[in-house]
Amino acid sequence: MASSASFARASGEASNQISLKSVRETLIRQEDSIIFSLIERARHPYNAPAYDKSYLKSSGNSLAEIFVKEAEHLHAKAGRYQNPEEVPFFTDDLPSPLIPSYDYPQVLHPTAASVNINKTIWDMYFNELLPLFTVEGDDGNYASTLASDLVCLQAISRRIHYGKFVAEVKFRDAPVDYSSAIHDKDKDTLMRMLTFERVEEMVKRRVEQKAMVFGQEVTMEDEKDGIVDYKVNPSVVSRLYGDWIIPLTKLVEVDYLLRRLE
Question: How far apart are CA 92 and CA 209, in angstroms?
């Protein structure tokens, strides 16, 4: 772990690389990645055996768990988790990178690495979200299905854990206000300070509109009388943000801020 002195130097060097504007632009770009990943996953039906622990009788794990674990091991070797924006779902026994370390800007406090709510994201995705935008059925294409699941999981996790950067830039804008609540371990006050309902509603409307644009079934025929079909119901995307992504992002922000002065 970096010393407080080295972090102070790094924070000063990187301070011009993060702003509320740059953070907001990143979050907006991530909306596109999430929507396109959902559209790709919706090509396949639910494919329940891929998530059933009893399907692979000898392993005790679901095919989804094995697939993601193995993929993360490969990604770790390629240096994916050196990037502070990337957070693995399975942290145990990840191999060391095979490549030299990249000098990422040290924007976040060193304790940011310990903020990980991927267990919650995993449960949400498979138990609540996935049944909302896939049709029932089994097409047997479990490998391509799980590859799409992995892209969805990573995109959603990256968006939610980017809350660490959101919290950092907000802390830098008002360090005195936030420090008082942090010293008091006052989660409720921190949550109120981080909540902007008007902005949240705007985000939900924007992602719903994007899902309408990106996910339209394009046809040259006029026989549908103006009825538009979507690859993923836009209301599901809005709900994903309203019920899960926005609230979980704020949980990450609070968790990060509570460690910010350590």
Answer: 39
SS3 of 164, please? Answer: helix
Q: Where are the alpha helices (DSSP H) in the chain?
A: 4-14, 20-41, 63-77, 118-124, 130-133, 142-161, 163-173, 175-183, 187-194, 197-214, 234-239, 246-259
Q: With a cut of 70, which residues of the chain have pLDDT below it?
A: 1-17, 220-226
Q: What is the pLDDT of residue 9?
A: 35
Predicted pLDDT at 260: 96
pTM (predicted TM-score):
0.91
Q: Convert 115-150 to b/e letters by CB count within 10 Å (16 or more is b).
A: bbbbeebbebbbeebbeebbeeeeeeebeebbebbb
Torsion of CA 58, 61, 66, 72, to 10 degrees: -140
- Check if the beta carbon of residue 45 is closer than 8 Å to that of residue 66: no
Q: Locate the domains of the chain by residue range.
A: 4-259
Query: Top-level CATH class of 4-259?
Result: mainly alpha
Q: Give tens-digit pLDDT for 79-102.
A: 999 999 999 999 999 999 999 999
pLDDT value at residue 81: 96
Query: In whole angstroms, what separates CA 142 from the centre of its chain?
Result: 23
